[in-house]
Design brief:
Strand order of the largest sheet: 3-2-1-4-7-9
CATH class: Alpha Beta
Distance between the termini: 35 Å
CATH superfamily: Translation initiation factor eif-2b, domain 2
Structural class: alpha/beta
Strand content: 5-15%
């Protein structure tokens, strides 16, 4: 595969919506043979990103001559859905000024930017999101938008949760019972928010809703956390975790 394909497949810091943007752009310029191999690898690498797998499932059922029309219609529906998310989210989040979040999410950035540009001064605290520190990317994006942003480690969360108005999370998948799969650390935010009586809002497109009730935890390279050889030391590295629905105040969609 070409260099661009490899970059997409090795992307471990983008949220699912941003990742889908790059996948759609890429397949629209590839030959059918290259496209087929690339899609197979995407399905293998990103099984937890529901919006990605749903798109690929639909796209693979389309006849070659109809793919361009399908992509145009899909992108139009996606744009309309995203606009609805911004409006719906501002209805619930517009009354708050201080937020805490985690990881890197195009949806979260767009919502916070939308709120801040409607004559609302907000402050956002972002967890760095170990082990790949994609929270740093989110914090930089927010700061570029002119939003007052703080970057912290997950270990610093208690005081920041205590002093915020609300916690907001993206979602990579939403199970049938409304449990949410998101970046590891999200459950910690939700538990602390419950302890400090702060609301937890999940912002997601409907494309991430599933009829699944069971989710399997992922296992990622342990060297990202500890690179030495030590047979008596057990390393766990999971990018995603389940946030139970009872910890979530509301799931905001399109």
């Amino acid at each position: 595969m070409d260099k661009n394909s490899e970059q997409i497949l090795q992307n471990i810091t983008s949220g699912s919506e941003e990742l889908l943007d790059s996948i759609i752009t890429h397949i629209s310029t590839n030959s059918d043979e290259e496209e087929s191999e690339f899609i197979a690898q995407c399905r293998k690498m990103f099984p937890h990103f529901k919006t990605v797998t749903s798109f690929l499932d639909s796209y693979m059922q389309i006849k070659p001559e109809a793919k361009r029309e399908f992509l145009n219609e899909y992108l139009d529906r996606r744009k309309q859905g995203f606009a609805k998310i911004l409006i719906n989210a501002s209805t619930y989040l517009g009354k708050y000024n201080k937020f805490v979040t985690i990881s890197n999410s195009k949806t979260v950035v767009s919502v916070l930017s939308y709120i801040s540009k409607n004559a609302k001064h907000i402050k956002v605290t972002v967890c760095e999101s170990r082990p790949n520190n994609e929270g740093v990317i989110l914090a930089e994006k927010l700061s570029i938008e002119g939003i007052t942003t703080s970057l912290i480690t997950e270990a610093q969360l208690p005081d920041h949760i205590a002093n915020c108005d609300a916690v907001i999370l993206g979602a990579d998948k939403i199970l049938a019972n409304h449990d949410v799969i998101n970046k590891t650390g999200s459950k910690l935010l939700a538990i602390l928010a419950r302890g400090y009586k702060k609301p937890v809002y999940v912002i997601s497109s409907k494309s991430k809703l599933t009829d699944e009730f069971v989710w399997e935890k992922d296992e990622q390279p342990t060297a990202e956390i500890y690179g030495k050889s030590n047979i008596n030391l057990h390393i766990f590295n999971n990018y995603f975790e389940l946030v139970p629905s009872y910890l979530i105040t509301k799931i905001i969609t399109d």
